[in-house]
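Lab notebook: predicted structure, single chain.

Context: the supervisor wants predicted structures on file for every construct in the current expression panel, including those that have not yet been purified. This is the next one on the list. No modifications to the sequence; it matches the entry in the shared construct table.
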Amino acid sequence: MNESIRTAAISPLRQRLIDDMNMRRFSRETHRNYLRDVGRFATFLGRSPDTATAEDLRRFQIEQRDAGVPTPTMNSIVSALRFFFTQTIDRPDLARKLIRTPHPRNLPVVLSRDEVARLLNATTCLKHQAALSVAYGAGMRVAEVAALKVSDIDSERMLIRVERGKGGRYRNAILPADLLILLREWWKIGHQQGVMHAQGWLFPGQQVTKPISTRQLHRVVVEAARAAEITKRVGPHTLRHSFATHLLEDGVDIRVIQALLGHSHLNTTALYTKVATRTVRAVISPLDRLGIVTADQERPAG
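Prediction complete. Output recorded below exactly as produced.
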């Protein structure tokens, strides 16, 4: 948990929420988002959120909608408040009053293999190339990449331990052979520079006692994409999308991809079937099997 949050004077209720998230090993980003969103509701109420009523929740969600808050943001607030009411103050009856707003998911932006290679080669230093290679080569979220420690790399089993995944879930990600070579090269240089230690962060930030920030990794991707003359709108998650799509196009079973990505639901992974163009092109239409069209066939136009 962020040290500034620990040291600040906080209420017992806020501390209880923090403790509940810590028990479930939520990521730093989830900590920050949940505290912000519960605080937003408290500001709306003008009093402690544990005194809220069902009518308060109804008015709050109507106010959010009328203010034009984007649907994804509203749903994120619902997730934070559901956790608060269910886990922190044991009021599941209030959690049931929160309404998630359905919204169509946009198809993810996916890079071609050539574009991925160009982007990785356009990074300005080995640390950045190694970090982005983990995002693509292991299909990891940007927060997961930033939170990796040197000890999370298991070269004997060729796995990367993800202990700070979304929702605090643990999983194993793959460790490709070429990625291991790159990480060993980064370890050698980082160790010589005194920024890497056996029990330290795999990608230290400007202060070696802290990991690289997700914001910095986002800037690295954007700058590398610009240098590689990639016109698509990309971010760190684009590399994860590309990892999943390329595996699907290579014929990897979708349930295996689900496990590698750490998705709870298969329908989340199934989204990539809509952007796996090589898979679509490999399908033979039943029309082609009829043989009704020949190259030399001539017939009137109308």
